[in-house]
Amino acid sequence: MLDATARKLIDPPLNALGKTLAARGVTADGVTLVGLALGIVAAMMIAVGLPLIALVPLLASRIADGLDGAVARASKTTDFGGYLDIACDFLFYGAIPFAFVVLDPSANAIAGAFLLMSFYFNGTSFLGYAILAEKRGLETSAQGVKSLYFSNGLLEGTETIVFFVLLCLFPTSFAVLAWIFGLLCFATATLRLFAARRVFTMKED
Any transmembrane segments, and where (predicted)? Predict the structure, then answer.
């Protein structure tokens, strides 16, 4: 819901930095992998009881996630780069909730499992929509220039980052926050299903 607005704020500085890095030979795929590594470091720190400190690599990983596209646009965009980016994103999104379950299994396991289930549903609705949009030749740049179609929704990347920050700031509230965010993920995916039914039941021209 907030990605389009956030993009207007973060794209100019990211694009400028992306051009600088690309000129120095930094690759978009390399930035993507650095972002994933930072995200995994954040998850490991959470798992051992350092959620506040984990905010540093967590936020750095999300900056890298936005920066890889800027580097690609300044050098060379590839379909594999988009594929690698989305795969690393999904691994990161699963690693953070898993880390909180490891941190306190008795308090967080059930809520964490529910949250991950909601991520599966939301992620599947997102990727399925992207596949059909590609088949229909639909395009959008509302969430920035992407390698695949990014359908909007109640919850998007920006909201997920804010959610992860809240988890790190209030780790003892993980279960409550996970149930709330998981329900919102289910709502997002359900609304996307209705949107897909409206768009993709129409005959192609």
Answer: 33-59, 80-103, 109-132
